[in-house]
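Please, structure for the following, as tokens.
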Amino acid sequence: MPLPKPFQCLAMAACLILLMTAAPVMATPAPQFAHPFTLVELTDMALTNNPQTKLAWAEIRSSQAGVELARAGYWPQISASYSVTRSRTVNFTGASNSAQTRYSPSISLSYLLWDFGNRSGTLDSAKFALTAAELANSQTLQDVILAVEQDYYQVLGLQALEQADQLSVKDAETSLDAARQNQKSGLATVGDLYQAESALASAQLSLQQTQGNLAVAQGTLAVAVGFPADTTLKLTPWNQNVTAVMPKATIETLLAQAREARPELLASKASEQAAIANLEATRSRGLPNLTLDANAGRTRTVSGGLSQTASNYSAGLTLSIPLFAGFGDEAANKQAQATIDISQATTAQLMQQVELEVWQAYQNLHTAVVSLTTTGVQLKSAQQAEDVEIARYHIGLDPILNLLTAQQTLASARAQQIQARLNWFTALAALGHAVGGLNAPTEATELP
């Protein structure tokens, strides 16, 4: 039995809604870039696109408005009013007078002349808060730069490790071919073949894991720059010949530089000064204040066709002396003092954290410098050892286990050499971030 026509319309509308809601939402495609990016280009894009930088700039604008709001207390408050009143008087006999209409424009002024430092303390607190916001913005920019640097080198390191794993796969395939040939010629057993196949599978697994880690690192870098995680960013290759050098500055000099240049630490000190200024403003609230009040107005009365105009002016000084506020002023002072104590403790804690970061970054850089030299020698020796074992296995002098061991040692040396280069770049970036800015070393220094 067919549905009535109204129900048919409702059913068609419901089906249309279901189709519309079930339709897939077309996502905005990720941007595509053809040319490879340098670290400087990626950093520039991150400072423009990263939400952290936008948030930091918004906080600065908010602090700037706070300063202007505090300055408003130094200006007089002026207001104007205009009233219209119509009235009629009726006596007890029921007789009434003519209706009267009054037009009364007026202007008033209130000006705080003296307040024992409430306005100045509030303004100083707002200024220090603005300074803290600007320094915090500088720290945010440095944090974004560090994140881009670390992610950039992480991607390059994994790309180099992927190439190294591909070489290891080729070496394992070469060993497997050699095992098959030696088996045919009677120089190897089937056990050699199985061992070579196992080594090849292990090399392929390592390559697959590296490729997965590389995909994750590429997405992390894209997000740090401010793009969707599926954005493909081609990178310029890194320097293959890294010189193992240390900064000229000693660790004592770097620690002193961090105390003076680290924006995060300077922002904490500015917040401490803002808390001190706020205590001054809070204490003044319980003290007298002097206010100038002035008023000027004119009243025009219209009654029975007659119009009369009167003007009035007034001015006076008001001295307000707070006597009792339910112990609120005392509580506010205690709270402001506690805020100062918290700020000072936060600054001291941050100072220790900054010094520890500088120390750790310096030691990590020193370790990376030593590791670069050591892994270079290790890689060269492992390559020579593999060449010898390949030759000896082909002529049947050594078992395949020796060759596979040499290849595993070579693969490990390649990975360690790449990791040492990655550690060098990331440690140098971390040290520069820890001290609040560091130029890349250009001359080798004697290692301690």
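The mean pLDDT is 84. The chain has two domains: 29-75+115-287+327-434, 76-114+288-321.
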